[in-house]
Amino acid sequence: MKNGFEKPAATLLATATLLAGVSLPPAAIAAPTGGNPAASTPAQHDGEGKDHATDQGEATVAWSLLGVTLTPDDKGTLVLPEGQTLPAFNARPDDISVEGSDGATIPLALTGTTEEHPKLGLTTGTGTLSAEATDTLPAVDIPVSWATGMEITLSDGTPFAQGADGVWEAEYGRTLTLKDDNEPPVRNIGLSDDSKTGIKWGEPTLKDGKVMRRGEASGEIQGQKWKARITAERATDHTSLAQAIAAAQQAYDQGGAEYTSASLTALGDVIEEAVNLDGTAATDEAMQAMEDRLAETVGKLETVTWSVGETRLAHEPGQGYEGKAPNTLGTAPSGTQALTSNDPTLGKLGSIAIDRAKDDAQPSYSDEDLGVIRATGTARYSGVTPNGNRAVTWSQDYSYTIGERVSATGPGGKDIGFTKADGYLTATVTAGLDQENQPKDTTVTIDGKPVAITWSNEVRTTADATTSTFTRQGRVEGDLTVTGTDRTQHWVVYVNATRTEGHVASLSVIQRQADGTGTEHTIEGFDPAKTDYTITLPANAVADQYTLGHTSAAGDQAQVSEGKPIPPTLGENASRILKVTLNGVTYTVTVNFDQATPTPENPNARLAGLYVNLTGKTEKGTLIDGWNPDVLDYTIRIGADDPGAYILPEAPAGVTVKAGDVKRTGYATTQYWTTQSPDGQSRTYSVTVIRDHEQPTAEEAFKPGAAEDADGKTPAASRSDTSLASHGYLLNGEYHAVEDTDYMIPEGGAFAYASKQGQTVRVSESKTGGMTWRYTLNILAPDGVTIANPAPAFTVTYLTKATHEAAITNIIVDGKPINGFDPNKHGYETQVDNLDHWTVNADFDKTTGMGVTIHKDHDRATITAVSADGLNKTTYTLKVSEKPLSINRAGVDGTTVEGLARTGVNSASMISVVAVLLAAGIACLAAGLTRRLRRGKRVDDRTGGDSGEDEGADAE
Are 356 and 379 in contact (CB under 8 A)? Predict the structure, then answer.
């Protein structure tokens, strides 16, 4: 059995821990002296819950608490000895037990506790350690006290005081100094226990000329809430800002009439911000920035401006506005002048109008052009502005025209340009003279009405080695009232009419054959003073057509004046008498033809004779004049109204003859026959019949219109510009430009060109053959010095319905027209009595000047018509076959040459055909094909086939 002094190890450990916690001295746990430990010890129990028997004579159990022996009171409850207390614990005395001397323990409970906080961080409390009595253990009731923690102060020693709300509060013992930017000098506050707590700083405030910020930190220690406050401040000076505000306010107050509303409003807003800032704890930097803003905004005050268009009126502060337009107004000035401001709050959306001065001077007037005067002067305006009723003036120079230019055209329809003279308008124009030196123009047109030119009778002539120039002077004048005014203009137009002709340098004969080819023959030894010349051409050229050509001694600088065409006439032996009037002088060239010479070759193929019947009958006539069986070519001249020449060849026995090719040019026809002897020798005979005619062919009668300038207004690229604006032709009053230099001009058209303003152009022209002319333009630049080199030249072919016609009107076979001829049909078939002896001819309109060639083979013929201009060609083919039942198997070799035409189609049909052919020809020749004259070569063997009998037949 354990004795009562044994203590469990756990109890001893707990007791030692508690005493250590409150730093009690060792005596505190010693048993009280003079006590009776066994005075009221109850019976003991064993470990099985049985009461511990107290043997008589054994010691009583003593109970102690922390070394203090407890005594039972009158109820047996263990208490402290009277007059004795336990020292204060340094921790709350929980989990403490009373220990018995026998090792037993009584666990105590702390009840009836009360705690207080006399200082921040320090806690004191009181209570009772007690236990209820049990069957084996006594009750315990011991009063106790305790104190925990230690007093906490601010780091500077400032103590905390508890407020009514139980929160401990303290104010830091000194005031700190704010930084210049109002930032706090510290961010944490320290406590006496070396801890630090962050400070929450309030916003800066201004008080008594100082910037102040209050900070606060808070926390909790042992369940006690605490709060500490701290103050930081600095001195500040708002004097400079206040002065800046005053200066800005003065500018604002005095600028109501000087500055725009928008800029004043902006300044007012900044002033308001500055005033607000001045009442705050602003930093020096913020105040300086505000001063800068005030100064900047004052500097940005926008002066009220008034402008006319892009021109701003001059203005001095506090003064009015004045200005003048930088340009001259081209119209009449208005009665008011609109001004616009940079301030839309002024006037009507920033606009006002001022009136023209009532005493403004009247404009001065001067002639500008025909029907137009010019008014010049200065308009002045005045008024006041809505910003302070400031005076405003404006002036505008003006120069404008009154009236409309009256149309004025001179020769050639060119505009007349007037210039100002002393009190009147004047102009000088040029005109042309015809070959009789009569003016080509008799009037100028003013305002749509012709006004007669008064011409002087004097013709002035100037000549040099190559040209002669003729000049006449004219004058026309009048008066005109300017529309809308009472002003009258006097005008004078001087007209210089001239013509320059080149001296005749040479004459030539231009020969054109039936196939359109040709040759030019220059007259040797030409002298302008000599008027009659003779040229002789080969006999086989007698059937061709002839015209005269010429050249100018001035070359391309001036052309020869050519008179009206003179139809050629026939002379002796079918010679051609050609005439032309040049520079008023008529020159005559007689074209003779060599007499055919005998040909000794192939004598076995001689004809017996060629017989001619000029009565119109198709029967054997008389032997041809000058018959010689060895002369192969003959010419017959017949009258204009003769029926034609029926020609019948006769061959001796054994020699065969047959009709061959035919050539027709205008009023001349050549018929060929071929003979052949039994031994194979062959000859070709020809007879050319030329008909007199007074009416010239269309080619002979044609003369192009004068070349005209269609422009003269296009600005030149430079003063030395010699290039034309264009060239082409005039047709029905309309100008057509052409790019090619070799081109065709439709019927009714004339060569034209478009010069440039200031250029002088002289045109030289020459006929090169047929309907083709060459124009050379000598161009003088506006500078009056530079000449086009080389002079531009253009070759044109004139198209007319007649000279472009290439269509026959009938085909004659064995003296009779074929059935069903139609010019639109180009292929035919017919029958003859003998394929070796048949004749073929074709009728056509001789007045057109066209040529027709017929090439005859054994059983076919090809008929080709070539227009007089050489540009159009139409080919017809004829195929023949023998009649199956022919009475006359001998065939036909005789034919009527240059007979009167037997028309196979009516004139209306022919006109239609010509129109179709002309249109087709123009389309086909658009590429600018132009024929050149060249001499052809006669082909002797013109037919082929077998022999037959020689017998006459009608043919034409």
Answer: yes
In this structure, are residues 869 and 929 in contact, taking their beta carbons and an 8 Å threshold? no
Is the predicted pLDDT of residue 475 greater than 90, yes or no?
yes
Beginning with the edge strand found earlier in the chain, give each strand of the sheet holding 408-409 in spatial order: 408-409, 443-446, 449-452
Q: If DSSP states are collapsed to H, E and C, what string results for 47-77?
A: CCCCCCCCCCCCCCCCEEECCEECEECCCCC
Which amino acid makes up residue 583? N
How far apart CA 818 and CA 814 sit, in angstroms, is 9
For 633, the token pair is 């070519």
- Can you state the angle between helices 261-278 and 284-299, rounded to 10 degrees? 160
Q: Which helix (H) or strand (E) holds 700?
A: helix 698-701
Q: How many CB atoms lie within 10 A of CB 805?
A: 28
Model pTM?
Answer: 0.48
Q: Is the peptide bond before 204 cis (omega within 30 degrees of 0)?
A: no
Is 598 within 8 Å of 610 (Cβ atoms)?
no
What's the distance, CA 849 to chain centroid?
55
**CA–CA dist 84, 97 (Å, integer):** 19
Kindly report, residue by residue over 811-844, the tens digit of the pLDDT.
Answer: 999 999 999 999 889 999 999 999 989 999 999 9
Q: Are 373 and 423 in contact (CB under 8 A)?
A: no
E-state strands within 244-295 = none
Strands 609-613 and 545-552: unpaired
Overall average pLDDT of the 464-475 stretch: 92
Phi then psi for 857, rounded to 5 degrees?
-110, -170
> Closest by alpha carbon to 301, among 249, 242, 348, 377?
249
Using CA atoms, how far apart are residues 273 and 279, in angstroms rounded to an integer?
10
Q: Are 533 and 588 in contact (CB under 8 A)?
A: yes
The helix or strand, by DSSP H or E, that contains position 251, with its residue range, turns out to be helix 239-254
Rounded to a whole number, what is the distance in angstroms from the first to the last CA of the chain?
190
Element (H, E) at 917: helix 907-924
3-state secondary structure of 930: coil
Residues shown for the chain: 956
The predicted-structure confidence for 199-252, as pLDDT tens digits, reads as follows 999 999 988 888 999 999 999 998 899 999 999 999 888 889 999 999 999 999
For every residue of 180-211, which 3-state class applies, written as one string? CCCCCCCCEEEECCCCEEECEECCCEEECCEE
Q: Provide the 8-state DSSP code for 299.
A: H
Number of Cβ within a 10 Å radius of residue 522: 12
**Cα distances (Å, whole numbers) of residue 201 to 172, 184, 236, 283, 883:** 14, 8, 19, 16, 144
Tell me the C-alpha distance between 324 and 686, whole Å.
99
CA distance 675 to 688: 18
Which amino acid makes up residue 749? G
- Summary count for the chain: helices (H), strands (E): 6, 66
Residue 728 has φ and ψ, to the nearest 5°, of 165, -125
Could you tell me if 798 and 868 are in contact, meaning their C-beta atoms sit under 8 angstroms apart?
A: no
Residues near 641 by Cβ (< 8 Å), separated by ≥ 6?
Answer: none
336 forms beta bridges with 355
Dihedral sign from CA coordinates of 251, 255, 260, 264: positive
- Which whole-number Å values give the CA distances from 353 to 256, 345, 624, in the listed order? 22, 15, 110
